[in-house]
């Protein structure tokens, strides 16, 4: 793949790594397309039993690439590739384990609501900074976060945009396990390998029953995307993104 996404399959596990460390793994449309393609290919491959999603050492992802977001604001529209990737993540039938070391911001945080097990390093931080950008959260997080965290914590996370450290994310139910940074990926892979050793029909059926009907999740992804498209057509959208970019430097 030409996008900075590395895909490796071993022992029935597909490891998908975000590998753009020079930009703190800010997700471009090209990267999101490669991520979606890797999940689709893994779903079709009967040898693949589970996915591990990882970032670079010290950074999982700082969210959408702000320069692309600025371009979206200039054009008054979002790229459909974002919605395609989010819907692919939302409908994956095989277990997904996340290995998070460092920052998980924006979409880098909200996509974790679709993972079945999240291992985070002790110094990882999680933040849904959408409102500060003048946007609404994505990945159906406005539906899933209250279910997982409860309304009050989800409000802190999605609306106030509070930064959660690893311990707070664990207490809120976003993280399953906290580990030293050097152990995060090994633990995530071990969890995936345990799942791969179980009867996959039973694992898949149990997971589907737990996750429930996906129709409401897909509908919410569309609703959030439509809201963000409207936001990007706002005269203030570009100024808000530029102001955030200057603050982030």
From TrEMBL:
<protein>
    <submittedName>
        <fullName>Enoyl-CoA hydratase/carnithine racemase</fullName>
    </submittedName>
</protein>
<dbReference type="InterPro" id="IPR001753">
    <property type="entry name" value="Enoyl-CoA_hydra/iso"/>
</dbReference>
<dbReference type="Pfam" id="PF00378">
    <property type="entry name" value="ECH_1"/>
</dbReference>
<keyword id="KW-0576">Peroxisome</keyword>
<dbReference type="InterPro" id="IPR051053">
    <property type="entry name" value="ECH/Chromodomain_protein"/>
</dbReference>
<dbReference type="InterPro" id="IPR029045">
    <property type="entry name" value="ClpP/crotonase-like_dom_sf"/>
</dbReference>
<keyword id="KW-0413">Isomerase</keyword>
